[in-house]
Structures are given as C-alpha cells and as structure tokens.
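Supplementary Data S3. Sequence and structure tokens for construct A.
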Amino acid sequence: MSIKEKINQLLYHRFGPVFLVTALLCSISLITRVALLIYSASAVDWSVLNLLKILIIGLFYDLAAASFAIIPIVIYLWLLPSKWHASKFNRVLLFIYFFFVVFTLIFNAISEWFFWEEFSVRYNFIAVDYLVYTTEVIGNIRQSYPINSIMVGLVIVTSLVVYLLRKPITTSTTNATGFGKRTKTALILLCLPVLTYFCVSHKLKYLSKNQYVNELSGNGMYDFGFAFWNNQLDYNTFYKTLPIRKAENILSNLLQQDTVAKGAFKNTSRNISSTGTENKMNVVLISVESLSAEFLGAFGNTQHITPQLDSLAKQGLLFSNLYASGTRTVRGLEALSLCIPPTPGQSIVKRPDNKNLFTLGSIFRSKGYNSRFIYGGYGYFDNMNEFFSNNGYQVTDRSALQDSEIHYSNIWGVADEDLFTLSLRELDKDYQNKKPFFAQIMTVSNHRPYTYPEGRIDIPSHTGREGAVKYTDYAIGKFIREAKQKPWFSNTLFVIVADHCASSAGKVELPVDKYHIPMIFYSPGHIAPGKFEKLTAQIDIGPTILGYLNFSYDSKFFGQDVFKMKDSDERAFISTYQSLGYIKNKTLVILNPNKKVATYKPDFTTGGAVAIPANQKLIDEAISNYQMASYLYQNRLYGFESNKKP
C-alpha cells in the first residue's frame, strides 16, 4: 500500500476527522513557524543543526498540542451511535466543527504573528496574564490593527479551506464502526494527551544557545497551556537553593554598608541611620511606560524624540547605568514600591496575600507624607488599585476625571497630558492641606496602539513607537513647566524613570541591553547637573531617594542607597517570569527552573553573552537574594505593620 493510500485510509476512517485535525494543526503551525523564522532571519543563528531543531522539535510540540486538540472530536466520534453516523445532521455538525477548527487555527496563527512582533516569543506567561483583562487586551487589538478586515479575510479563507476538505469530511461519515472497535481506538487516542501531560518536557525546546531558535522550536498553543498551568513558580521547588541561614548570612554581608547593629541582623531588617536633619522635600516619582534608554539623545539616539527629557537630563542628575527588574509594568511597579528582587512567576503586585507589605509609600507615610499612586487608566488593571491601596498609598485613577477634562483616551487610559493635569490637581490639594507629598505617577501613552492627541508633536498619532515616545516626552515637559508655577515646586524632587524597556527580545536568554533604562533626578537648586555612572538596580531607587532626603528608618528593603555604596557593592537584577539574572563585576549569573545555574560574560552594548566558568561566590550571592526574597514574601516577613487597617 502506497503512502497516499495509507493517508486516504486514515482520513476516510470513522476517526478520520481526528487525523485531519492533527494534519491541519501541524500544517498551519509549520507555516507559522516558517513565517516567524523569515521575519526574524537577522536574529537567528543559521545552521543546519538549528534548522533541524526548529523543524523537528517544532513538529514534536505540534503533535503534543494536537494530542489535546483532538479530545473533543475523539469523544464525539466514539459516543456517536452508528445509526446517526451517516446522517445529514452529523455531516452538518462536522462541517460546523471544522469551520470552527480551521478558523481557530488560522486566527491563532495571526495572533502569534502579532504577539511575536511585540515580544519576539511564542505565547508565554504574558499571554496568560492578559486573559484576565480581556476588555483592555481586545480594545488594544481593535485600536492597533484593522481587526474587521482581518476577520472578514479570515472567514473567507476558512470557508475556502473547509470547502477543499469537504470530501474527506463527508466520506468519513460513511465508515460505520462497531462500539467495541471504536472504543479501543478512542481509548488509545485519549491516552495520547495523558502521555503528553506526564511525559513531555517543556525544556526540550531549550537546546540552542540562540533564544530565537528555542522559541521557534516551540508551539504557541502548547506553550500557552504550559504557561497557564505553571504561572506560579515556587522558588524552593524549581530553583537552586542554599541553607536558609547561609543565604541569610550572605545577604547580611551584602547589606552591611547600611547596617548599624550588625550583630542584630534578621533577614533584611536593619536600621538606616542618617546624620543631620531630615529633608522633608516633596517627591514626584514618574514611572514612564516602556522608556528604553536607547530612546534618549543622552544615550546616543539621533531621532530627536526626547527633547524634553534630554533637556532635563542636562539640568539634573542622569543615571546612566540603571537596569530594570523585568519586562512588564507590574515588575517595574514591584521594584519601585517594594524594592525587592523579582520573584519567579507572577509579580507580587498581582498575587494573593500581598497586603500590608513593606513599601516606599509606607515609609513616606510614616514620615507624615501623603503617599499617592496616580494612574491614567482604570486601576483594576493588573491589580493596581488593590495592591497600592493596601500598601500605604492613596490611589487615584482615570475615574477621578470628568469626561470634559479628557482631551484623548485609548483603551489603556487617558493621554499623558491629562494624567499630569490630574496629578497637579491632587498635589495642589496636599500642599493646601499643608501635607508633604510623595506621588508615584504612572504614564500609559507609550504603548500600542501608540495613539495620542493630534497637533502636540510633529509625528502623527498611531504611526508607531517613536511618536508615542515623543508625545510622552512632550507631556512630561509640559508637566514640569506647569509645576514650576506651583508654590511647592522649589521644594520638590522629581524622579523620572522607566518601568521597563520597550522590547525584551534578544538572541540570548537575558539580553542585558533590553533592560537598560534611564533615570533623572531633577530639582533645580538642590540637584547639581551631572551623571551617576555606577551600576544601579531598579530596586535601589527607593532607598536612594530616602537616602537623598537624609531619612533615618527601619528598613527591610533589598535595595541600597547607591550614593553611599562602594564600588564592590554594585549589582543589578534582571528577569523574565522564570529566568532570574544577577549582574555583578561585569558578569551575569542566570538561575532557571530545574535548579539550573549558568554564568556569562554579557555584552552591555549588543545584549549578547558568552558562557564562562562558574563563579561560585556570585552564584551564591544571586541565590541568596532571590531565595530570601521568595522566603520573606511567602512567610509574611516582608510586612509593614502600620499599613494594617483597623
């Protein structure tokens, strides 16, 4: 029997639709994989071995995904009585089913293309995370892409494909099979997803040193399922650990420069004692959406899309060697508020049991400040209202604005200029009430669909990232100019920093250049113009602000006051939801699930990395920081008692 005859025999069998679904999934997945490979050609390490990995391992994961996709049709064909199998009703149901299958597979392929265009990875934790916020995500898609045209085209293509498949679909209904015989076949087929679940390892795709090759070797649907079931990663279960006392001692030594009672160290608790009078300046911390350092002229950009920030950088103190903790806004919020290394899995901002934690807002509130979190969108997104309101902040979001006060909005929130108008109003209230204020303001305009009010800048709205960056820059400049007219301006420290970079994609697992973000300390009459060039972690920002204000306080922060640190204390933390990086002495240690540890020499310009022999001292430091961060959170030892509400 020829191969063609064997294929026809399978397709025209009672369970032929099962094999047809498998063939469709694998074919469309292959087309998707090839399209993404061509799109990312310049970033892929081209070799025969890498191509074989992409195609063979990719097919393996396609079949793994298919084993789950066939479950409904297997059960239907198994339980469908033989007398109904050849009926018109069954044929109609099968055609409807295949229309749904083909539509879903092609829709998924298109979605994967857009997801890859944005993140340069297959579906992962981010895709699962967005499922919770369907309003924002669907709205973002509708505002970013010609979704109506895409859907019409998708229906037409789906109808054509189903029409071409009409013969095997119809013929399969003529093959009657007894219940006993089809039970054996059904049980064999239903064993496949069980075997996949227990026997297929997600790490098989990580066989290349090139991250693009690894991602292309996967299957988006399978990766989505894996991320869905593994969105919480217990550090002790999945990562390399040390005895807890050893980890605590290592961390104690790393934090000694801030410790007064050195013998009394407990976890990260210590007393920060400053000499002299505390400086009760107001603090405005602006967290800018997706502001990579590479966008600023101060870092060599020649597009002139940040004229306001470049001007402020010359007038204030520019931090030129700062690295974000993660790749998403919630990681930036976590780093800025909790000053803790990123724990694997979900950000603490979105986890349960995250109330009454030790935060920057809590410290300011204990000093008599009004601590605010001001956001241009609706604060239910990413659990921001819940997190900040229960951790020392007063939350204000777009619901505080009247429609007449909004010049422009998209699915993510109001235009940044309207956010800053709202912020000025709230800060004026604090000043009138004779309260010093700490305000963390989070912008939203520098985000796809990259839309903003027309006429503000010389780049039309909805034309790309550069326009969104320039509009946010415009809005910040406008805010500073208006703040200068306020009586509280002369006693205010402005800190402008990114939450994360615009892109995290690179050829290696953790490309360090994709975590490089800018920060400016701006306060005329207080901050002398200059550059701070020491390696700085995003979790250091809070303690550094407190140190600049000469505050004495009891701290649990992992971050340090970089103005006081020695050269030997410089380090930074970068991460994805599962890869945890520690940068020190121009070396990058990466901790991964399955207790993996690797050491690299990173290229801070290109983001590349070369594997080098293990440095056990740095490995132990990395483990201690990440293990203790997880330990303190899980055991509720990272709390701030006065946050608790009566």
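Construct B, processed identically:
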Amino acid sequence: MSIDFSKIGLKVGLELHQQLDTAEKLFCACKPQLFKAEPETTFLRRLRPTQSELGQIDPAAFFEFQKGTKIVYEANKETACLVEMDEEPPHGLNTEAVEIALIVALTLNATPIDEIHVMRKTVIDGSNTTGFQRTCAVALNGEIKVDRKKIPIQHIGIEEDASRKMGEDGSVIRYRIDRLGIPDIEVATAPVLYSPKEAEKVALAIGKILRATGRVKRGLGTIRQDLNVSIPDGAVIEIKGVQELELVSKIIRYEVQRQRNLLEIRDELHKRGVNEKDIKEDFIDATSVFIETKCGVVQRAVSNGKAVLAVLLPKFAGLLKIELMPGVRLGTEMASRAHFWGRVGGIFHTDELPAYGITKQEVIQLREIMKAEPKDAVVFVADKLENASDALKAVAERARESLRGVPEETRGPNPDGTTRYMRPRPGAARMYPETDVPPLQISEEYLNDLQEHLPELPEHSLERLMKEHKLNKKLARQVLDSEYAMLFEEVARRSNVSPTTIAAVLTETMKALGRDGVEIDKIRDEQIRELFGFVGSGKTAKEAIPEILTWLSKHENSTIAQAVQSLGLTMLSEVEIGEIIDKLIGQNARLVKERGKTAFGVFMGLAMKKIRGKADADLVSKVLRRKLEESADKS
C-alpha cells in the first residue's frame, strides 16, 4: 500500500557517524586500524551500571546489565594499549580529529564551541571496556541545503568508536578492541526530514561533505547512519547502525508501516475492552501437556528437565499473527523481548498453532489448563524456570505496551530493511563529565586559518570534474556520490588511462562487482593506483580490470603483477594477436568468402572471447580489419 508521507506527519532526524582518517586514535597514540591475526592478549570483564550524579541509573544500561553477560576482550599491541584496556587514563584529545571536525563544521556554517569538553556516555553492552563512550561537542547550529531546502544541523561532535563484536557463546561475548578509540565524527540534523527519500538525500549530501575533506576512512563499517523516526500518536524510535545508504529510505518506510500497524492493534484492543490490569504475570506450568510432544524444541527442553511455562493474554487472539512489516509480527516483537530479557531461543503462541510438531490436541489441552476463552491467546516458553519466567515477564510487559501503542525503543537494522529490537531508549542520566581529559580551547585565529582552507563544495566539484576531466554530468555525479572521489582525481592526473574509463571503473564496475558478492572493501587504494598504472602503460588491458579486481579482493596483499600472472593475463603482442585471428579466419573461411569485410562484428566477438584481458580492444580491432582486408584481396 502506498503511503503519502506528507500527510501522515512523518518526522526523521538523522545522525551520521563517520570514522576519521587520523594518524592516531582519539585518546592514545595507537594505530587506528583493524588487525586480522590471532589476538596477542585476552582479558575477561563484567560491566555494571553506575548511578549518575543525580543518583539515576540509565534504563538502557540497566537492561544490558540484566543479561548477566561476561565479556572477553581481544587485543593486539599495535592497535590497542592500556588506555583501551581501561588500565591507564586517556591521553589528551587528538587535535587532528578536532581539526577535521572543525573543518566540517565550518563547511556546514556551524558555530564552533570555544572550549571543548569531553563527556562520558554510559554504554554497558560490552563494546567499551570502561562502560562508557567518550564524546564531545565541537560545533552547533549549522545547516546544509538539499533540493533548495535548508536542513538545520543541530550538533557536530567527535567520539571514540566502539569495539568490534566477534561473536558470542551463551552468556559470553567476544569483542576485539582494535576499533575502540578510533575517532568518529557525528553530524546530527534536526527532525525536519519528512519523507524517506529526503532522509536518504540528506545523508548522501552530508557524506559528500565529509568525503570532500579527504580525511575520512572508506569502506564497510567506517560510516553508519542512526535514524530517529516518529509519526503522530506513535513514538520516537531510534534505529542504530545503518551502514548502507541505499537502506535508509527502505528502513524508514518499514518503520512507518510498523508503527501504523501497532496503532491499529492498540485501537482493536481498546475495542475489545482490554485493560492493562487484565494482563497479569500469572505463569502456569504446562509441562504435563507436552510430555509426549513431537515438537523438537519443546521435547528437548522437557527431556533435559526444563519447564514449559505459559501466560494468558486476554482477548489477544488473532493479534499476535498480524504482520507489522515484512516477516515481523507482534508475536515476533514479543519473541525479541523474551530473547533479550529471558535469554531464551524464542516463544510459542496459539495464533501460530498447531504447527512445529505441536498438535491440535496439545493446543486444546493447553487452553484448558490456562482457562483460555476463544478470544484469548496463550504464549509459552520451554526453558529453565528462571529464564522462562523472565521471558514471560517481558512478553506480558510488551502486551501491556500494545495497549499504549508504540513503545519507545532502540532498534537495529536487518539486511532486508526491516528492524529488530535492541534495547530500551537511553535516558538523560547516561551523560556526565570526563574528568581525566582537560578541556581544549579553540582560538579565533585558528578558526580563521581553517576558514581559508575549506574543501571545495560538492556542487563546485561537479562542475570542475565535468570541465577538467571531460566527464558527462551523470558520471561526474556518480564519482562524487561514491567513496572514490579523491582517488579518482589522483589516478586521473597520474595515469594515461582515460578519465571516463577510470570513473566508470570506480563507480559502475565497483558497484556491479559488489552486487555479485565481490568484497570490494578489501581492495586497497594502492592496488587500484597500481592497476591503472598497468593499464596506462600497456601492461594489461582495460577489459581485464573486473577480473583483476575480483582476484585482488581474495588476495589482499598481492600486487597487480601477481594478479596478471596468476590469471594468465600477460599482454599479447601484435604478432600474437595476428596469429590468433589468422586461425579464426582459417576456421571460418566460408564466412569470410560470403561476407568479406562485413563479417567484422562476428570475428571481433570471436577474437575477444579468446583475447579479452590480454590485449587492448582497439589494437585487436585494428589487426582484425587488416587481416580481413588481406583475406578479401586474396579471394
């Protein structure tokens, strides 16, 4: 169903986070890069929430603590030190990161803060060894113009990136702290984006300005968008960590759909006369119903001495199976809460039964034990008694929230554009001053000097690319929209390859390879420079570029010479090309006799099948025309 976003009152606020390309981390001298070898050091921690200066505990922090998880951290001496391990105070704020953030701020017409103070933001999911993230505001009240509309920029800041999650096993989570402390810039807009497409355009426009500095990192994981989405009568939902720009509009559309469906469920519950006090945490042991069940999950739990615990949801029948967005139902939302709060694999509910090996008779018996009326739903969990009880408490609370409409929460993106529950929304109690890092004063003279060296604005870059490199408008825009704008200009000036060819490879070819599953983020800039050097000097053909790039993605530290040799793409001489074409003409003599020179297209296709990647197409064309003329003269 099509939605007119201008009429429903959609509001979106965007927070764009981008890693900065600095020589050091934000609070120490470690290299801001990731390592791939086995960790040299590991250590175990369990994080706990602390009270703020007002004696409050942040609900999101308490939520993570409730999981009871333990954290194993992995470290390497080149990319982490005692600062990341929280065994040594942070060093001074990285002035290079501050400078980049100020350049972005001035480009966005924001007002820099004259004294930068570092704050601590409570984070207790394990991604920070300290239990908090260090962050600071750098500038306020800027703007960016997109499609003739001025978008207010509320805040520009820098913060330390979090550790990388490497996996989990039960209650133990593994994090690698190489990424912890890498400087991130944050650019936050006001909630004045009124359509999914507008939000995507603004994210792209801000990203262009960041890339124009030439001082931000590239590749998957170096940039993400956080979205704050709301509709009237709904709630502000924070969707964190959207890494692909193309997903922004899709995620917003699905979130609007989810909230509207939740509001319809709320209205239906009110029509049915359901009150919050009707949803009680009276859990019934229903293990006896499933003693001989054929359901594998339940049968294994019962066999291991675990319990089947059930809760009644009065007048909820039929509502748990309502689809909120593709593949996500109200029952799915309850299952997510049960998983996080109760540490269970999932839930069963009567809206989806009989199924999964659970029979109709077992459902009847379950409803009898629960004294369920036809309009009631029953939810049950098979697990340890404590886990099952915590899970059903979360289900009951989510059912009560359904009567209020849309619960405020933080959600995470899925690859298909849907979202999943992550944790409650953080409260104001999560932020407090960092006492180990002194304030950094910003002088007027320093800002004036930066103002004189601001990067070229994207609209000016577009005109210059078209004029200087003879690119058409479409290709020039694709270059600016890509992550390779700076690299394009460098290669175009140093290589003998046509700028149009370079631009097409860095945009269209790279995107096509990515869609085909090639890990293009593993291809280093140095390899790309070397590749175009080979093409420009005639050491390999431009037709071989996709094949070489694919090979490089699987051999990260290899050279172009190694790729060419491994793929058998050594360039053929003009004599060797002539010999191949002579053979083709000999094998298709009748075609030459019948069509003469007009057989060029057919022979060009046959020749390129054998020669592609080993010779320039123009040279093949030249030799082929000559050979066809010679054959025609002989006949």
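The first strand starts at residue 11 and ends at 19. The chain has a mean pLDDT of 91.
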